[in-house]
């Protein structure tokens, strides 16, 4: 059976670190925890699980820190996690099974990264990441910020999920300007940005509500025509967000339509185009786009919000068909939405409304 090193970089993670380490303590054979300057109990907690708690001077470079952690691993494979990630019990069991059956010719294993779940526990935002890699392949992290692990070879796509479980006290998310400051320091130093840098810098600008500036960099990224298809599509969606915040409706629509030029239509832009036509009361056109969002659902390596291919378009189709007088179709789509969200307040309200409507009509 192969052995596994867990490699992490941490800083001031006392609120979440123990939950992360507990979730993989029966899976990993070695823990390598690299601290980049904690001032809380992070290192104390880490030392309860391993003697390999190493210091690394922070140099505004996530890849440098992660590569340092990887360089200190000694087992057959390396698993990487962030401190606010955990494996739920069901995924721990899947991982243990994978470990006993993992063929040595596998160079990397990708896992599903669940960022958000709805109030009913359904995953709403997720994507794949290469999480477990063969140490002997010497794969490297690339990029000072929004870094990625440059992996190649025989990659196994597993059904194991890693859950993002950020503590409420640390849920500031994009309100932190750390990444934005790193990018702007690089600009001041005159560094050239890769297409990936342009994309993520634009994202940081958008997240900090610098919409006009974000638009400039999204256009520069897309104009270079060297981006990954999934980033191209997401850039179009984020560009549409920026124009929407600025009240630029025509440009918002243009950005959504541009996303269709990179691949088959994806559910999210289809739904958002449908929303625009629905707001105009052009229900027939809206129906086309919502229906397309359901039909075009497919698994991709990029970001996925399942709402746009499941309950959301069905709820909108319920409204559109009702407005056009298609009562049976309206009821049908509400029932479809209920399959995904059986306790949703809007779905239950619609169901009661339809029941009352049908009863009143049967008396006539």
UniProtKB/TrEMBL annotation:
Gene3D superfamilies listed in its UniProt record: Spore Coat Polysaccharide Biosynthesis Protein SpsA, Chain A, Tetratricopeptide repeat domain
SUPFAM superfamilies linked to this entry: Nucleotide-diphospho-sugar transferases, TPR-like
Annotated TM spans: none
Signal sequence coordinates: none
Segments forming domain Glycosyltransferase 2-like: 5-126
Source organism of the structure: Mesobacillus boroniphilus
The name this protein goes by in its record: Glycosyltransferase family 2 protein
């Amino acid at each position: 059976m192969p052995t596994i090193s867990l490699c992490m970089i941490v800083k001031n993670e006392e609120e979440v670190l123990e939950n992360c380490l507990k979730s993989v303590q029966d899976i990993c054979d070695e823990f390598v925890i690299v601290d980049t300057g904690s001032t809380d109990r992070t290192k104390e907690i880490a030392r309860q699980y391993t003697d390999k708690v190493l210091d690394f001077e922070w140099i505004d470079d996530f890849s440098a820190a992660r590569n340092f952690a990887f360089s200190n691993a000694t087992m057959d494979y390396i698993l990487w996690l962030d401190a606010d990630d955990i494996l739920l019990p069901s995924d721990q069991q899947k991982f243990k099974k994978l470990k006993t059956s993992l063929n040595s010719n596998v160079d990397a294993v990708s896992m599903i990264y669940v960022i958000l779940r709805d109030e009913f526990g359904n995953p709403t935002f997720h994507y794949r990441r290469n999480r477990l890699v063969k140490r002997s392949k010497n794969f490297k992290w690339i990029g000072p910020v929004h870094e990625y692990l440059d992996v190649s070879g025989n990659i196994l796509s597993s059904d194991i999920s890693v859950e993002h479980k950020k503590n409420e006290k640390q849920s500031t998310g994009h309100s932190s300007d750390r990444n934005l400051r790193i990018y702007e320091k690089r600009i001041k130093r005159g560094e050239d940005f890769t297409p990936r840098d342009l994309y993520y810098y634009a994202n940081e600008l958008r997240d900090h509500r610098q919409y006009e500036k974000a638009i400039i960099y999204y256009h520069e990224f897309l104009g270079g025509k060297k981006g990954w298809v999934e980033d191209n599509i997401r850039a179009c969606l984020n560009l549409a967000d920026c124009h929407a915040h600025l009240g630029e409706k025509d440009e918002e629509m243009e950005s959504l339509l541009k996303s269709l030029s990179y691949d088959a239509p994806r559910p999210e832009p289809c739904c958002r185009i449908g929303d625009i036509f629905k707001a105009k009361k052009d229900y027939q056109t809206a129906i086309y786009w919502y229906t397309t969002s359901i039909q075009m659902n497919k698994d991709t390596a990029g970001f996925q919000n399942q709402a746009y291919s499941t309950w959301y378009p069905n709820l909108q189709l319920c409204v559109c068909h009702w407005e056009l007088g298609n009562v049976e179709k309206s009821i049908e789509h509400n029932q479809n939405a209920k399959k995904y969200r059986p306790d949703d307040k809007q779905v239950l309200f619609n169901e009661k409304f339809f029941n009352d409507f049908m009863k009143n009509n049967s008396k006539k």
